[in-house]
Specification:
This protein is mainly alpha-helical and 209 residues long. It contains 7 helices and no strands. The termini are far apart.
């Protein structure tokens, strides 16, 4: 192992950076949801043999990685500390409510997509559920990244902060194995490729002059 690799392994990821990195996975899932919604509503090509498996797989990642892992880290280690400190109480309560709503939405999405019903009514229902998930989680994660996580640094000691980063890494490895984040990321990339939205350059606006 090179000296550079050894040094990289020794650098612990701060807990809030770890959570924000996981928000990156969520953002990419939301882009998948947005693209699928367009397909379900007829704005883009609808190929059920591609669309329904993508919904089921992305919904499963949302359930296992975002809701049953990422959200639980926030609730057990971040939200609890704010409640103990009597800080940002209102915001924390809203975020907790939205975590519960996310789990309900994912259950409904997986149930509807699992039926494989291609009738327009079911397609519209799934599209609506995906839209609700996206509509809620875009401001949700933005508020955590810009308000809650920066404030978290102010209510814990440096030693607590660093120890929590190590704790998060231990929990991630126990749940998803070594390099668990990278494994989840690869799964998301495969879904993006299946829909044709993986290449970043396609989002670049082009100007005639």
């Amino acid at each position: 192992m090179s000296q550079t690799n050894r040094q990289s392994e020794e650098i612990a990821i701060p807990p809030t950076e770890d959570l924000m990195r996981e928000h990156g996975i969520l953002k990419r899932l939301l882009l998948i949801y947005e693209d699928v919604e367009k397909r379900l509503l007829g704005y883009k090509s609808f190929q059920p043999h591609i669309v329904y498996p993508v919904i089921l797989k992305s919904g499963t990642i949302a359930r296992n990685f975002i809701e049953n892992y990422h959200q639980e880290l926030e609730e057990h280690y971040i939200f609890t500390r704010f409640l103990q400190e009597q800080s940002h109480i209102g915001l924390v309560h809203v975020l907790q409510e939205q975590h519960t709503a996310a789990k309900k939405l994912t259950t409904l999405i997986l149930q509807a997509a699992g039926q494989g019903d291609q009738h327009m009514q079911n397609r519209q229902n799934i599209a609506h559920l995906l839209s609700l998930y996206k509509q809620m989680y875009e401001p949700h994660e933005a508020r955590e990244d810009t308000v809650l996580f920066p404030a978290f640094r102010e209510i814990v000691t440096k030693a607590e902060f660093l120890a929590l980063g190590e704790k998060f890494e231990e929990i991630e490895e126990s749940k998803f194995g070594k390099n668990g984040f990278e494994s989840i990321l690869k799964q998301v990339e495969q879904l993006e490729k299946a829909l044709g939205i993986y290449e970043l350059s396609q989002y670049t606006p082009h100007f005639t002059k």
